[in-house]
Write a structure and sequence with these properties.
single chain; 63 residues; alpha+beta; 3 strands; 38% helix; globular
C-alpha cells in the first residue's frame, strides 16, 4: 500500500489567501488524524463526523 495525501486548498480566512498544504501519511487512519488536526488548528473547524467524512473524500494515492 502506498502513501496517501490530502491537498488542502481551503481559504485561510473569509476572502483571504488559500492554504496550499499537502498532508501525507502511510495509512488513511494516520492521514485523517493529521488532516483533522490541521483543519482544527489552522482553519478553526470543529472536530465532527462531518469533517471526518469530508476529509475521507479528499484522500488520494500519492504518485
Amino acid at each position: 500500500m502506498g502513501r496517501k495525501i490530502i491537498e488542502c486548498n481551503a481559504p485561510l480566512s473569509p476572502g483571504g489567501s488559500i492554504c496550499h498544504e499537502t498532508l501525507t501519511a502511510n495509512t488513511e487512519e494516520e492521514l485523517l488524524e493529521i488532516a483533522g488536526r490541521h483543519a482544527i488548528n489552522v482553519h478553526g473547524l470543529s472536530n465532527t463526523e462531518g469533517l471526518r467524512d469530508q476529509l475521507r473524500g479528499m484522500i488520494k494515492d500519492a504518485r
